[in-house]
Amino acid sequence: MDNSTENIGPTAYAFQMIEEETKENILGYNYPEEYQFMVQDHWRSYPAINKYWHYSLALIYTMLFIASITGNGIVIWIFSTSKALRSPSNMFVINLAVFDVMMMLEMPIFVLNSYHHHIVGYQVVCNVYATLGSISGFGGAITNAVIAYDRYKTISCPLDGRVTKSQALALIMMTWMWSLPFTILPAFRVWGKFVPEGFLTTCSFDYLTEDSATRMFVLVCCIWDYFLPIFILCYYYSRLFGAVRTHEKMLREQAKKMNVKSLSNKDDGGASVEIRIAKVAFTIFFLFVCAWTPYAFVTLVGAFGDRSILTPVATMVPAVCAKTVSCIDPWVYAINHPKYRAELTKRLPWLGVREKDPDTASSSSTATSQTQHPTAEA
């Protein structure tokens, strides 16, 4: 060890060794010659990613995998096996959970890639990884929009506007069909292609090739996957909120005519229906924006903007955001369902959820009412 090494101390020396090791290679150096075509020139301008970055991200993905499989698995299990929850509307929640589980199937591949610091299996596995992400991403996005439509129909037209089982099945089939065009086209390189990105341990569609076909693909893809679903979400939740406000106003006017305080049920500490719906709608909208805005930003910047800001670390952030949201997405819908909470209490008491069965509570309330207000015959 030379004098300069002795002066900096053992901790600084360790970081210096890591830095020197990283500088020896550029990103993509460990891809064999026959697969160098997979590494785009943009990534070659960065040094190889330190192994501790790979291991840290693999650990994060492992925790997300466990959380998502557990959460989405419970949602699928309870909603599909409980008779009280077998409704057309709840079929969409199950569908969303299935898409999120499909997204989680990428994670074991990613952990293996992170261990080897490159995509194991190269182009074949790259296509598999990106296909899983594309189907689950596109499908999950449009399923959120379908749920917004279903909520609007159910609440604004409760008698004759509810989605039937056959309509729900058709809409679910549509969500899967929606995800196929921009999965099949790049998978077979008809339009666009799947390529490694970021740390070169994940794959997505190409947004860095400088040609008009790639730019047009990115633009259409963002409209299809991001802007259209977000427009549908905003449209139906705004209409739903408007319909609920109109209904609440009518109830207040009717109550005034009848000289009573209110005709509406005010649960949750007096919160109005419109406020509760607004909270759920805002949460869903916020999660959607958190999940897909980073992806939309990165792809649009890669195709049309300043690519210098797209560092390997920066381009790994969108995937983490999307997968984090997929862990909690179905819970937002499910946890607002009293019957689902009651099933959790019954089947998984160790979760700590305490919810009375709505049917039992309703029966008890009716019995109490009858006891307190006996009929004239009694």
From TrEMBL:
Its main location: membrane. Residues 360-372 have a biased composition (Low complexity). Belongs to the G-protein coupled receptor 1 family. Opsin subfamily. It is found in: Membrane. It comes from Plebejus glandon. It is a multi-pass membrane protein. Residues 355-378 are annotated as: Disordered. One of its GO terms (molecular function) is photoreceptor activity. Residues 71-333 form the G-protein coupled receptors family 1 profile domain. Pfam families: 7tm_1. Keywords: Chromophore, Disulfide bond, G-protein coupled receptor, Glycoprotein, Membrane, Photoreceptor protein, Receptor, Retinal protein, Sensory transduction, Transducer, Transmembrane, Transmembrane helix, Vision. Visual pigments are the light-absorbing molecules that mediate vision. They consist of an apoprotein, opsin, covalently linked to cis-retinal. May play a role in photoperiodic photoreception. PROSITE patterns: G_PROTEIN_RECEP_F1_1, G_PROTEIN_RECEP_F1_2, OPSIN. The chain crosses the membrane at residues 52-80, 92-116, 128-147, 168-188, 216-237, 280-304. GO terms for cellular component: membrane. This is Blue-sensitive rhodopsin. GO terms for biological process: phototransduction; visual perception.
